[in-house]
Design a protein that fits this description.
mainly beta; 117 residues; 3-stranded antiparallel beta sheet; 1 helix
């Protein structure tokens, strides 16, 4: 028995098992597809989370959690820098936040280096 399988939706039996693409409850004989659980996970795919797991949205204010080097700039972006009014985008190489940082201008950041303020 796999402990990760959900209980039966009919009788709440805990002894469900897989049979091909179906899940089966041996207690009541109910058969169902695990598609509802997979579709709930699919809704999470478009969600962008920060470094600590908070969900980000357009217009949020975030704080940079580690110092970032910026090409052509001697100091870079220091940890603790606040970035206001972010915009979530499908960026290149994992850069999914489009923003303007004071002193640096417009740039893209990775959500893994920011924390929601």
């Amino acid at each position: 028995m796999n402990e990760n399988l959900p209980p039966c939706p009919e009788c709440s039996g805990a002894y469900t098992y897989e049979m091909g693409t179906l899940l089966v409850c041996p207690e009541c004989g109910h058969e169902w597809t695990p598609a509802p659980a997979e579709s709930a996970g699919g809704a999470e795919e478009g969600v962008i989370r920060d470094a600590v797991g908070n969900v980000l949205a357009d217009g949020d204010t975030v704080t940079v959690v580690k110092t970032l080097k910026v090409k052509g700039h001697p100091t870079g972006i220091k940890a603790g820098t606040k970035v206001r009014n972010i915009r979530l985008v499908e960026g290149v190489a994992g850069h999914d936040i489009d923003c303007k940082i004071e002193g640096f201008g417009a740039m893209q950041l990775k959500s893994s280096v920011v924390k929601k303020a």
